[in-house]
Design a protein that fits this description.
Helices cover 62% and strands 8% of the residues. It is mainly alpha-helical. Strands 1-2-3 form a three-stranded antiparallel sheet. The chain is elongated, with a radius of gyration of 34 Å.
Length: 275
């Protein structure tokens, strides 16, 4: 039966020890273990090793190595259980070993999906313009389950959602002021949906942020869009030219009355509008 002949600290890792044993060829390297495993199994020079204890020792050492990998990964910031599992899997750690390492991380409170999810929601709320639905997608991607997700999203109060959505809407309206009122409303609604805000918030924001433009303001937007259409269809003449511009402006959300006023007010190409 092999006997431990020497135990030495590894040069590149002071927390790991190389175990040597006697064989028919003399002393040779047997295996290495973490310091905690060395202490747990009270490995000392002169101890006899049989197959079963060595198998158990190496299994526990694999758990310890996976645990240490996870601790290093967690040192940079909070992580979810799902992120740690994915990281260890990429490191080619066996599934049973990962589970044991995860259990140990929970035992010593290095993992806590409840706290992670709440902190994630607060960070997203305070540092991004994302609404709660997009934040929930982020939690799902981190491997957070539905129950924890639903509890955590309460960290994002309705009032804060409205406040952030209103800020987004204000900037969006200014940026798209050359669209018709109808198109502006449609675009804003879709924009806020993509950002992850629920309809209850969007409805409230739409009522406060988007009102019907004054006629002069709407005409200004119409003229801007009309000039673009004139350039686009500049090779057309007569009835076809008029209809293309009229249809284009209608598709952009302007009323027929305003479109007709615009067409009637055009100068320089009156002959093009004769039917």
């Amino acid at each position: 039966m092999p006997v431990i002949t020497k135990i030495s600290v590894q040069k590149n890792n002071k927390n790991r020890y190389s175990i040597f044993s006697e064989s028919g060829k003399g002393e040779e390297y047997a295996f290495s273990v973490d310091e905690d495993v060395l202490i747990k199994y009270q490995l000392t020079k002169g101890m006899e090793l049989d197959d079963l204890p060595v198998t158990e020792i190496l299994y526990q050492d694999d758990i310890r190595k996976a645990y240490n990998l996870a601790l290093h990964y967690l040192a940079h910031r909070m992580r979810s259980e799902g992120e740690v599992r994915e990281y260890l899997t990429k490191k080619e750690v066996a599934t049973p070993i990962i589970q044991e390492a995860i259990n140990r991380l929970y035992k010593y409170k290095f993992l806590d999906d409840d706290e992670f999810a709440k902190a994630f929601v607060r960070t997203q709320m305070n540092t991004t313009d994302k609404g709660p639905e997009v934040v929930k997608i982020g939690l799902k991607e981190k491997g957070i389950n539905e129950k924890i997700m639903d509890d955590a999203i309460r960290e994002y109060p309705f009032e804060k959602q409205v406040e952030k959505a209103e800020q987004l809407a204000s900037k969006f309206v200014i940026k798209n002021r050359k669209d018709s009122s109808r198109i502006l409303k449609q675009k804003l609604e879709q924009f806020l949906i993509r950002k992850g805000y629920p309809f209850s918030v969007i409805q409230l924001v739409m009522e406060d942020s988007v009102t019907e433009k004054e006629v002069d303001e709407e005409l200004t937007a119409l003229r801007f869009q009309g000039e673009k259409l004139q350039r686009k269809h500049s090779k057309l003449t007569g009835f076809e030219y008029k209809q293309k511009i009229k249809q284009g402006l209608y598709n952009k959300g302007f009323s027929i009355d305003l479109i007709n006023r615009y067409l009637e007010g055009l100068s320089g190409r009156e002959e093009d509008f004769l039917e």
